[in-house]
Design brief:
Radius of gyration: 20 Å
CATH superfamily: Tetracycline Repressor, domain 2
Number of strands: 0
Order of helices and strands: HHHHHHHH
Structural class: mainly alpha
Strand content: under 5%
Shape: flat
CATH architecture: Orthogonal Bundle
């Protein structure tokens, strides 16, 4: 039998999440995938929360987010792009990022870089936090839609059921809807807003 390791357990959890959805990731299911008794996992990941934290570590590593000093706009673009890539390649596991706050030095490293970048640009600590939070919320919300799109589960409004005379604009835009354009628009709007906030503080 192959020796159990924390990394191997977590990678099995990622595979299981991508195949069956994040709700399928339990210690018992992971143990079954590995062909071991569940108690064999406890020395490596004692709880489901520990598994979730570990999945987040693996995903953030895979996203290759900035770990050295960069400008704030570079960090925002790379963070959003990294989350988009994770959503495409790990549509089930990426849900972990919406279930638990980041834990530990390894996972938090890129956020230290981000906070320093926003502070250097002119934000005070409170607004640097707000800027990072706004970026994370944008990235995770668009990432959720991207993950659903990859798995063919993206919800759509039943526009045909809406009376044309009461909903002319909704019916018009439904024919023009382009999710990728909307994701890009969200990113550029976020960056424009952050630039505006910084200009106000420099006056």
């Amino acid at each position: 039998m192959v020796a159990l390791t924390r990394d191997g357990i977590l990678r099995t959890a990622v595979t299981l999440a991508d195949r069956e959805g994040f709700e399928a990731v339990t210690l018992r299911r992971i143990a079954a995938e590995l062909g071991v008794h569940v108690t064999s996992l406890y020395n490596h990941v004692a709880t489901r929360e520990a598994v979730t934290d570990g999945i987040i570590e693996l995903l953030l590593d895979e996203a290759k987010l900035p770990l050295v000093a960069v400008g704030w706009e570079t960090w925002v673009r790379r963070f959003v792009a990294g989350m988009a890539e994770l959503s495409a390649t790990h549509p089930g596991a990426v849900t972990a990022l919406q279930r638990r706050p980041v834990q530990g030095a390894r996972a938090a490293a890129t956020f230290e870089v981000a906070l320093a970048a926003f502070r250097h640009a002119g934000f005070d600590p409170h607004d640097a936090y707000n800027a990072v939070k706004a970026t994370a919320l944008t990235a995770l919300s668009t990432g959720l839609e991207q993950a659903l799109s990859v798995t063919g589960q993206a919800p759509e409004t039943s526009v045909d059921e809406l009376p044309a005379d009461q909903f002319p604009q909704v019916r018009l835009v439904s024919a023009l809807a382009d999710p990728e354009s909307a994701w890009s628009f969200s990113l550029e709007t976020l960056i424009f807003g952050l630039r505006t906030q910084l200009r106000r503080r420099r006056k």
